[in-house]
Amino acid sequence: CGDSADEKQDSSWEKCDFETSLCKALSEFNLHPGWIRRNGQSGMGPPYSDHSGNESAYFLSLSSEMQSSSAALRTNVFLPTDEEHICQIRFHYWVSQMSGTLTVGLQKHSEDTVTNIWQVSRELRNQWNINTITINSTEKYEV
């Protein structure tokens, strides 16, 4: 459902909104240069609010110094259980007119390479968008 009413929210479900922290999934945030935690009131330019229109809500953004470079974020390791091998990651993203490409990759611990599983480039600019990625894996992985 569009309002997420049908999504299972049990003990393994975790929401990350950056309001109070950088979330357990991004514990190595300081190792990812270029990313900053900010809100629309920071005076840094668009976006001026989060995806719901809240100007004081926090989100992650690339620093203006990173315009000609790339920056990465890496989650903690996801460990599928015996019963559940499926994980859904839902995220909101903003692509500005100066942005390049936003890519989501998957690295299984048995592999040395990152496989791109989703990408967006220069479409629906200057507005918040949403995407959900479903991952089915029987082994440890990072996104």
UniProtKB/TrEMBL annotation:
What GO CC annotations are associated with the protein?
membrane
The record places domain MAM at 14-143
Name this polypeptide is given: MALR1 protein
User: Which PROSITE patterns does the UniProt entry name for this protein?
Assistant: MAM_2
Stored Pfam families: MAM
Q: Which organism is it from?
A: Oriolus oriolus (Eurasian golden oriole)
Q: Which InterPro entries match?
A: ConA-like_dom_sf (IPR013320), MAM_dom (IPR000998)
List, alphabetically, the Gene3D superfamilies matched: 2.60.120.200
